């Protein structure tokens, strides 16, 4: 999917932006009939920015609460924990058995002689094994009950969590400050942030790799499941993930390429970008499954029974739970959430620069000199739009936006982009423009001509059919979204 769908559309967007040197809306002056593509990509970027920075706010909340001697999501003795909260690890079991004791759900050990390791009520139920269907990890309850203060349904909004609102304000202030002096200074910030994120990612992976059970997780990760190749929804999901990870069809690539030198070799850039994307995915996947393998070892649970979910569950429940079991866990937690904040802020800066530059390019006489005022207004507007995500039902709305925005609408936009450039503007004219910039036709010439004109549109239609055929009513945890919410989601998808 990366080579037959992802990189070709990335190449097209980079070439468009570099040749025209304008934003994602104005660039479609080459094909005025398809200017709506630019508007659609801008709307998608706006929606992603609103909810993406909410995830940054969660990460900032976690970061501040990691500055403690004991991580708050490592135990079941907090006021937000319920009866089902269970702490289980092999060390606790062996130590408790060695003292002829009984292990409780909350991780406390009661010795038969009435000596207690912790001052807990002896009437608490006994934990003989970790049943993932009945017991709840403390990191789950911390995220849902303390961080989100999550309600039971979408329309039960509740009150605003002002701690999250403050964290969200901090996130938007950082975005504003990083972009205040322009794209060059922002580029330096992104360079440092991404480099630091990769270093932390590698350090965490090496640390987890030294833990028992991590190799089992990696073996599970790298073991091919050939039956999945017959599942069309897998192909559709993989394609959507490729588009999202490459930031294609969001206008960002066009906007950033507009700042490149006219004769910059973007043909080389696409291969570097593709290799970086593959290596990052492999390293991130290895980190996740080494953590899962370690957790399954600690909980004495077969790795096939561990239900790994993408999104917030992975970032704020699974990995923090694994980190909480490490020695000097707060240090690793600080590193981990710094990495998450860096990654999200870098992505949001990328999209925000796209939005601001595109709007300024549309009204150059009025707004180009007032770039900072436009930036301040958009940051304030997006912060206001993000406030509802700070409520008790915020997670439900965020999942709704994430499910319907950066998914199949990106595929539709990719189809129309390829059709507009290849068939209306003309693929031969486009290749001539590329030759003008990089001083040679991208090799092999006939491959790119056939790829953009025939293969890409066909592949995009196939991917779209895979995604729609595999559609099923979605839910967050055990909550199934009502029909009106799903209809609203489809409406949001169709808006761009």
TrEMBL record:
GO terms for biological process: amino acid import across plasma membrane. One of its GO terms (molecular function) is amino acid:sodium symporter activity. Keywords: Disulfide bond, Glycoprotein, Membrane, Metal-binding, Sodium, Symport, Transmembrane, Transmembrane helix, Transport. It holds the Pfam family SNF. InterPro entries: Na/ntran_symport (IPR000175), SNS_sf (IPR037272). It is a multi-pass membrane protein. Signal peptide: none annotated. One of its GO terms (cellular component) is plasma membrane. PROSITE patterns: NA_NEUROTRAN_SYMP_3. It is found in: Membrane. Na(+) binds at residue 245. Disulfide bonds join 76-85. It comes from the Eukaryota. The chain crosses the membrane at residues 6-28, 40-63, 160-180, 189-212, 232-258, 270-292, 331-352, 373-398, 410-431, 452-471. The keyword Transmembrane helix applies. Belongs to the sodium:neurotransmitter symporter (SNF) (TC 2.A.22) family. This is Uncharacterized protein. The lineage of its organism: Eukaryota, Metazoa, Ecdysozoa, Nematoda, Chromadorea.
């Amino acid at each position: 999917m990366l080579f037959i769908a992802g990189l070709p559309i990335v190449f097209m967007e980079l070439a468009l932006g570099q040749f025209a040197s304008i934003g994602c809306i104005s660039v479609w002056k080459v094909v005025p009939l398809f200017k709506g593509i630019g508007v659609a990509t801008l709307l998608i970027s706006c929606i992603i920015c609103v909810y993406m920075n909410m995830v940054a706010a969660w990460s900032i909340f976690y970061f501040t609460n990691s500055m403690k001697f004991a991580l708050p999501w490592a135990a079941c003795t907090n006021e937000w924990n319920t009866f089902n909260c269970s702490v289980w690890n092999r060390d606790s079991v062996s130590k408790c058995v060695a003292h002829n004791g009984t292990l409780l759900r909350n991780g406390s050990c009661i010795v038969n002689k009435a000596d207690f390791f912790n001052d807990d009520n002896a009437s608490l139920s006994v934990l003989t094994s970790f049943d993932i269907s009945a017991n709840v990890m403390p990191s789950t309850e911390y995220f849902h009950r303390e961080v989100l203060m999550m309600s039971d349904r979408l329309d039960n909004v509740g009150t605003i969590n002002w701690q999250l609102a403050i964290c969200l304000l901090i996130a938007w202030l950082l975005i504003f400050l990083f972009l205040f002096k322009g794209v060059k200074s922002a580029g330096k910030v992104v360079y440092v942030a991404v480099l630091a994120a990769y270093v932390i990612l590698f350090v965490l992976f090496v640390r987890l790799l030294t833990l028992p059970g991590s190799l089992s997780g990696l073996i599970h990760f790298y073991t091919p499941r050939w039956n999945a190749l017959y599942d069309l929804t897998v192909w559709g999901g993989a394609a959507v993930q490729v588009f999202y990870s490459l930031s294609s069809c969001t206008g960002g690539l066009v906007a950033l390429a507009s700042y490149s030198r006219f004769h910059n070799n973007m043909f080389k850039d696409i291969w570097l970008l593709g290799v970086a994307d593959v290596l990052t995915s492999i390293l991130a996947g290895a980190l996740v499954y080494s953590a899962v393998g370690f957790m399954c070892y600690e909980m004495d649970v077969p790795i096939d029974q561990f239900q790994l979910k993408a999104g917030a569950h992975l970032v704020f429940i699974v990995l923090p739970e694994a980190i909480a079991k490490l020695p000097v866990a707060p240090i690793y937690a600080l590193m981990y959430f710094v990495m998450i904040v860096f990654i999200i802020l870098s992505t949001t800066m990328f999209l925000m620069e796209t939005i601001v530059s595109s709007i300024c390019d549309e009204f150059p006489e009025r707004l180009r000199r007032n770039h900072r005022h436009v930036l301040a207004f958009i940051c304030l507007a997006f912060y206001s739009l993000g406030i509802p995500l700070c409520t008790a039902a915020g997670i439900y709305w965020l999942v709704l936006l994430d499910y319907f925005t950066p998914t199949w609408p990106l595929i539709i936009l990719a189809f129309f982009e390829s059709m507009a450039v290849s068939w209306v503007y003309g693929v031969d004219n486009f290749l001539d423009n590329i030759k003008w910039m990089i001083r040679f036709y991208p090799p092999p010439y006939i491959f790119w001509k056939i790829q953009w004109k025939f293969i890409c549109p066909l592949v995009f239609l196939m991917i779209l059919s895979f995604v729609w055929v595999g559609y099923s009513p979605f839910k967050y945890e055990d909550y199934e979204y009502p029909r009106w919410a799903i209809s609203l989601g489809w409406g949001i998808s169709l808006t761009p």
